[in-house]
Amino acid sequence: MFSSLMLAAVLVAVPTRTTPVEVLAVCRFNAALADETLMHHLVELTAVVTEIERDGIGGYIVRLDAEAHESDFIGRVEIHCHFVGTARPALAGIKPGEAVTIRGVPRELRDHLSFPLDKNVRIKMKDCELLVAAP
What we know:
By secondary structure, the chain is of the alpha/beta class. The chain has one domain: CATH 2.40.50.140. The protein has helices at 2-12, 20-29, 31-37, 88-92; strands at 16-18, 43-54, 60-70, 73-83, 99-111, 120-133. It has a five-stranded mixed β-barrel. A hairpin with a 5-residue loop joins strand 2 (43-54) and strand 3 (60-70). The chain starts with a helix and ends with a strand.
C-alpha cells in the first residue's frame, strides 16, 4: 500500500526542467539546492546525446555531457540515464548529436568540484523515459 502511494506521488509530481549545464551550475554553487530540486525528484533534462551504451543487464544508458569554461571555473558534468530494455526501439532512433528530452529520477550524485585539476559532477538517473527526440 505504502509503495503504491509513493508511486502515485511521483506520477503527479511536477518535474524540474533543466539542462546539464544548469545542473552543473546548481551543483557548483548550492549543494542544498541540488538536493532540494534534483536528488530523488522527477527531473526532465534536455540535451544533446553523447552516447548510448548497454548497461550489461539488458537495459541501456544514455549519456548526456556538458562543460563550463569560465575565467574562475572549468567543470564538466556527465549524466547517465538508465533505461529498461523495452526502450530499445525509441533509443535506436536517436541520431548522433541529436537533442532529446529525458525524464528520470537522479539517485546518485558524485560531486568532485573541489578537486583542483579535474572538476566533475557525475549523476546517475534511474527510471528514465525518452519524452522527445528532435525532429
